[in-house]
Amino acid sequence: MQALGLNEIRERYLRFFESKGHLRLPSFSLVPKDDPSILLINAGMTPMKRYFTGQDKPPCTRVTTCQKCIRTPDIDQVGLTSRHGTFFEMLGNFSFGDYFKEEIIPWAWEFLTEDLEIPAERLYISVYHEDDEAYKIWHETIGIPEERIARLGKEDNFWEHGTGPCGPCSEIHYDRGEAYGSGAFGADAGDRYVEIWNLVFSQFDRQEDGSYLPLKQKNIDTGGGLERFACVMQGVDNLFEVDTIRSILDHVCAIAGKTYKSNERDDVAIRVVTDHIRSTVMMIADGVTPSNTGRGYVLRRLLRRAARYGRLLGIDGLFLTQLAEDVIRMSGDAYPELREHHDYILTIIEKEEERFDRTIRQGMNLLERAIDSAKSANLSHLPSEDVFLLHDTYGFPYDLTREIASESGLELDELGFKKLMQAQKQRAHDALMAKGESAWSGLTLPAEVKKGSTTEFLGYCSEAEEAELEAILLFPEEGSELRFVEALSADEAEQAILIFDRSPFYAEGGGQVGDHGEIRSLDGDAKLFVENVTKPDGKLFLHRVRLLSGEISVGDRLHLEVDHERRMATARNHSSTHLLHKALRDILGEHVKQAGSYVGPDRLRFDFSHFSAIDRETLDAIEKHVNQAILDDAPVVTELMSMQEAKASGAMALFDEKYGDQVRVLTMGASKELCGGTHLKHTSQACYFRIISEQSVAAGVRRIEAVTGAAAMQLAHEDSTRIAALAQSLKTSEADLLERIEKLKEELKSRERELETIKREQEQEATSMLDSKVKQLANASVLVSSLSVDRADALRDACEHLRSKFAPAVIVLASEIKDKLAFCCMVSEPLIERGVFAGNIVKIAAQVAGGGGGGRKDMAQAGARDVSKLDESLAAASTEIERLLG
What we know:
The protein has 24 helices and 35 strands. Helix 7 runs antiparallel to helix 10 (320-331). With 886 residues, it is of the alpha+beta class. The longest helix has 35 residues, at 342-376.
């Protein structure tokens, strides 16, 4: 049996199944597609669920992959043992109604015993106890002796998950020898027999009543952990000893100056860092960025745990990017996206590690004090108030607080913490309600509104329509249920919610605000202003209106008309948002993805994933890119198609929007996105695009705000007016304005230098006048005096000058700077040996004036607020010096 490297085993496996007619597919992204049930891909077959269920047609009936996987339920165990890890690679071969047991069992045996040359006598098999077919193939066709085959129950050898496709499985185990246990196979034998490959025979369809029906299409789903294969082939005990992973581990040790397996506490930290950096690199390469929710939180937790355990190893400073380079080098051939996003991966890691370093420095002192306080009070847990303060004010992760507290023998009051978090959410909600921004969210519809009712949206093609009024709803005086009424007049209420069978009004959604407009009766007597439109369930449009005149009743035919100017202004901003998204991806890179948006008539706001601030030159390039797309006058083409067709066309799905079976794909020039909003007919209708701000809104998320159309032209006009006024004020032309400003800046700098020179001369003169005040005491020069300067560094310079000039000396100077007292004390080395310490002297002087401070033995500074105590402070310093010098 050869000692094969992990990368070679992966390639051999994939090549072997290619020789059996399988299509080799690259690893799917760790971010699941169309599967909200999981945050991250955690098994080899997970990305192919739709092939197994028949929802999608596979590219081939035989497929083989090596899938990247992340599992974090046991994250707290990682490092404590050498078995647990969060990242692993799963080898797999799959049949979608093609071959079955008769093929896969012999192929598995062939790969293990012939390609990898694992001795046949070291392999043991388990099968489901009712699966006579698999048992017969292993025993009679392959020739495995009965004593090396275990027939086990459902718990061990039957794969199922709720209802649907399921079936028995057969596991292949490797005998590591008696050194790992002496029990028989199938019994409690310790770590002797390790599973390396699981062959799942998907042949039944489990029903709701628990019965099993045969599947028409029988499938094969196999999975073998690549790291386990490598452990067997390399003769090592655990995944951390495998060649590629051990290389990273050794680098951790080199950075930390540690030796693996010499200290168990260090070993835990070394394993945590080694494992977590692998997961971190793989997740970032697949587009995950650190955040406080979802998979972004998983990434942030992994990255910050790695950084913290590095600190426990004594690593001072940033170090994770060095290890990330190892991961990219080791796995870049198998996963090209690692090399493709090399710089981006390192940047994200470095930024997050820097951010965490600041958080740790702020929070650790507080946490240590809280732990000491809890221990002094003989508490078994850390008070929830302390945990909440660390989390809410300093951004200190709850999980990290729990880990550190646990190391000190303390638990967390989780229930108390959750109550404080809930109270905080309620305060935020109440504040929002107070602003009126959510005054009608959370309200329920009355029974008179039929469940499943829908409003037909006509707004893509029309801005004015007649519609039948189906319901009038008033806001409740108490409770949350809206009140149904048959008619509305000024006597009833000024505000109400109206429901129609159809409407041209766009309902708030996808980041776009709802339309405003007018509703009137056909005879013109009744008029209502539409303040907003929402669709809480995605189907029924709720028109919030203000009655201006007349009366309306349920069943009336009314005229609905959208505010055209407002709709057009919103459409300019919405279409420009698509153009901006395309510009950002073209200029900043493909990692840019939408993270939120606001589209209204006044402006657009676009949040996107990016790791650093954007400089002015790049913002200008982005703005130019969008304006060029506007000038190109590209038609805005709308197509309806299935989600699958949309993806195949290259259309981008934005943010976390929910899409139906049929989706709208908007194409404008090079931009192609899924979108349900209202848009322009041609890009040129946007007229003009101006960026007004760029800022950070969260870790790894930037925000651009911009205006278009009339608002952009008004901004340009205001800029022009300001420039003209500035040029007039500086008595120059607009063309020469920059040159004039630069000239004035140089003149100002010259004047400042002159003033600085004068100030230095004055300070030196004031310092020289202190020479006469120096006293001799016990073979030392002593000076305690005030000095009129306006800078703390000038006070320090004067101290240094006088100490050098009159050495050995004790110099204490004080000055009133910005309505506060500043003290500085310096002591020559020979006097320090006599017990004269600058820190003690300056502290005593400052305390007299209600301040404090300290420092080194040779130099110390302090401050105080009570300037009236200057003379008393200096007197206290003199007394202390006299005492110290005897």
